[in-house]
């Protein structure tokens, strides 16, 4: 299903699809069993990044620019994983290989 074209000016039109179909995960045997591993990796990632952020926030000696950069990296990794892993789990568990255009853009 295509979205209606959006006019960007004189002769420029931008069209985007409603969703993308992910085909790279269709041939993996026993794909439903990978969610346990993926869920474990997600939990370790969330706990690890939260621990790093808490240590940097709570210790006043770790307020140097180097640790501020590490805090920002942990923050971005935490929210990146929170956006990506649930969609991959949805693909594994419920066989929904579509991802909406706006979700993919995000």
TrEMBL record:
Gene3D superfamilies: Rhodopsin 7-helix transmembrane proteins
Intracellular or extracellular location(s): Membrane
Domain G-protein coupled receptors family 1 profile: 48-106
Entry-linked InterPro entries: GPCR_Rhodpsn_7TM (IPR017452), Olfact_rcpt (IPR000725), OR51/52/56-like (IPR050402)
Transmembrane segments: 12-28, 34-58
Membrane topology: Multi-pass membrane protein
Domain of life: Eukaryota
Protein name: G-protein coupled receptors family 1 profile domain-containing protein
Keyword Membrane: yes
């Amino acid at each position: 299903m295509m979205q209606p074209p959006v006019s960007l000016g004189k002769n420029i039109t931008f069209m985007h699809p409603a969703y993308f179909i992910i085909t790279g995960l269709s041939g993996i045997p026993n794909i439903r069993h990978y969610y346990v591993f993926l869920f474990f990796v997600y939990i370790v990632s969330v706990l690890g990044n939260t621990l790093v952020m808490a240590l940097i926030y709570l210790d006043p000696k770790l307020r140097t620019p180097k640790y501020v950069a590490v805090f920002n990296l942990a923050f971005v990794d935490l929210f990146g994983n929170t956006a990506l892993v649930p969609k991959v789990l949805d693909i594994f568990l419920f066989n929904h290989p579509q991802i909406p255009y706006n979700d993919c853009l995000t």
